[in-house]
Amino acid sequence: MDTSFHYMMMAVQSHFSRRIMDELGKLGLTTGQPKVIEYLSEHDGSVQKDIAAGCCIDRATLTGILSRMEEKELITRRSESGNRRSLHVYLTDKGREYIPLIKDVFIKNESNVFTGISVSERAAFISTLTKILNNLADTEELQ
Hints:
By secondary structure, the chain is mainly alpha-helical. The protein has a single domain, classed as Winged helix-like DNA-binding domain superfamily/Winged helix DNA-binding domain (Arc Repressor Mutant, subunit A, Orthogonal Bundle), CATH 1.10.10.10. Helix content is 67%, strand content 12%. It has 7 helices and 3 strands; from the N terminus they run ααβααββααα. It has helices spanning 5-24, 33-43, 48-55, 59-71, 93-96, 98-113, 119-142, and strands spanning 46-47, 75-80, 83-91. A 3-stranded antiparallel beta sheet has the order 1-3-2. Helix 2 (33-43) packs across helix 6 (98-113). The chain is globular and about 50 Å long.
């Protein structure tokens, strides 16, 4: 098996996403929607630019995700203070019903991922991933 960094990151992300979506897809959610719901659960009323950044989703991709969520009545978009160019996104009551379900799936899968890994190993791993993410974010800002 290839153990290069790029391969391992791709493989882990692919397997983890598949497990998450195998469960959440049964609830009618599609790729990207659980992340958006989780983000809005803590930042309800955010503008699209902030949601895209918070979920690490391209703005154009997010537009499609939000449209499908609006069709399912999971979110609503509205202008604030008469500013029609920047719409704020809010979870609907129906969208909020998914919050505990999504959190449970994320927690269960994270627990499975870290089976056999000590608390200190987990902390070191998360710390290293945070540094890698910051390095990537810094590089993107320079482009």
